[in-house]
Amino acid sequence: MIRTHIPSRSEVKEEHTWDLSSLFRNDEDWNEGLARYEKQAERIPSFRGTLGTSAEALAAYLDFVKELRILEERLACYSDLRQTEDEGGSAARTMTGKFTMAAAKTWAASSWENPEILAVPAGNMERFLAHPRMAEYRVYLQRILRFKPHILPDGEERIIALHAEGEGTIHDVFSVLTNVDLDFGTVLTPEGKQPLTQSTWSVFMESPDRELRRRAYGLFYGVFDAHKNTLARLYAGSVKQDVINARVRNFPSARAAALFPDNVSETVYDSLVNTVGENLAPLHRYYKLRKKILGLDEFRHYDVYAPLVKGVEKTATWEEAADIVSAALAPLGGEYTDTLRSGLLGRWADRYENKGKRAGAFSAGSYTGLPYILMNYKDDSIRDMFTMAHEGGHSMHSWYSAGANPFMHYSYTIFEAEVASTFNEELLFRHLVKTASGDLKTCLVNRRADEILTTLYRQTMFAEFEKTTHDLEEGGTPLTIDILRGEYRKLLEKYFGNEITLEETSDLEGLRIPHFYRAFYVYKYATGISAALALAERVAGGGSRERGDYFSFLKSGGSHFPIESLKIAGVDMSSPEPVEAACKIFSGLVDQLEQLLRP
Length: 599
Fold this sequence. Notes:
The protein has 2 domains: 9-167, Oligopeptidase f, N-terminal domain (Butyryl-CoA Dehydrogenase, subunit A, domain 3, Up-down Bundle), CATH 1.20.140; 231-316 and 396-599, Orthogonal Bundle (Neurolysin, domain 3), CATH 1.10.1370. Helix 1 packs antiparallel against helix 2 (55-85), helix 3 (90-109) runs antiparallel to helix 7 and helix 8 (169-181) runs antiparallel to helix 11. The protein is mainly alpha-helical. Helices cover 61% and strands 3% of the residues. The model has no long low-confidence stretch (mean pLDDT 93). Strand 1 and strand 2 (192-195) form a beta hairpin. It is globular, with a radius of gyration of 24 Å. A 3-stranded mixed beta sheet has the order 4-6-5, with helices on both faces. The chain has a two-stranded antiparallel sheet with strand order 1-2. Strands 3-7 form a two-stranded parallel sheet. The chain has helices spanning 27-41, 55-85, 90-109, 113-118, 122-130, 138-146, 154-163, 169-181, 201-205, 210-226, 228-248, 254-259, 266-277, 281-294, 318-328, 334-345, 382-404, 414-435, 438-474, 481-496, 523-540, 544-555, 562-569, 577-596, and strands at residues 186-189, 192-195, 299-300, 349-350, 362-364, 372-374, 500-501.
């Protein structure tokens, strides 16, 4: 059921919103925090020239930096979360702007930090790192030292820092345009006119009413078509910015620059794309099955998420979903499930859609605050229950990482984050399908196949697109609207195969993906689900040792590079084997569907 009324923020019940007081009591308190931050930052120049004099002097500076950055993280998290509540609200956007200016000034003032640390003679730095005062800063410093070939003289670093304030403008404009300014109108349904938004779009695409899907698709992409040139210029500008930043930092490519902080080889990225590309047969078989079961002469782009089983309802209130998710995660033990359930039923989460609220879902953890969750939950969408488990995985990962590590290296990478989230989804699927039968079981298997399709195959397609667009820019080919649409259409044809009939506007999909504004991010979804499927099997089928290995991973934070931390958990992502295994699991789900849907 699609909601006929999208409430304003003021109409949402307080208990259904997150409580941001773990960061700041209110906006006034935040403003006072910003003033403290700006005052503390004035001390930065006083440390200049001292970092190489002794281990104690370097540690004293890092003590100061730690406290400053904890406050900086709290300020950023609070203002960002407030802005997502209503992207069109001026108060939160003003806070975000004020923080961005203050942070840019601070980064510029401390631009000498890394060059000065890297100027410390190797022998001296080795002695510094062995000093007891450096225990909580050792990992942080070792990671800075890796960047030595890519750090510029401090004057040039200052120029880069001064430009940081504008770095997020392109993504910000894209977010405001697509979440606030674009009006998708209403769709005529048997129940009357209902609003089409970025959040309700997925509900329309999952409707069993094909004509309703067709109308919603046409209306949705018609709006993007009317703004395609603006969207193309925004994305082209984002790619150009990625390329420029990589060149400034002396990286061979934008992709190399993006993968360097995680110490992930480009061969891992290429192996993912190649391995998935070699395993498209099950995907094409699945689309062929969809076309057959839906009884279609032509399989269209708006048929991709149509339910294969009609009339199956699995409704759950937020509270009921929290209980189900907790039961599903029982293999992880009482501390994990009790903490997550308490957070979900408390005020970790901003639960439901309101006008202007950011679409989709995310988890936002910080060192001193709660691991908050944004959702646009709908009681009649089983997908949203899986999203709850997914974002809960992120939040619990943050909870364990912050509790087990010093601030300077508590933060885990996105590469690792997608493991903890999709791991939870797999356990939820196993829990639900265990007692399901008939159409409900078919619906769950169908949903799980769709989820792996979306996370493994679709995100790998996105990863190919990002590689292509950045290669074109780096090779001197301008990213025009025709080039972008043409390259994206090639990938649609490759991944969908011969079964689908694409719409004229289908390739506009490539212009509406927000993750593209964080380049070379999406491949981590695909590697993440591959690792998660392997680890879920290991933990669910193992004992205390396997569970202990998984918790060692959750608690590792940023103490290891992601490939190393996943090896601790029990999976080697430098090998193509986990991706191949994930493709086989998808193929097995397609086999099950063929049996379950057999007349």
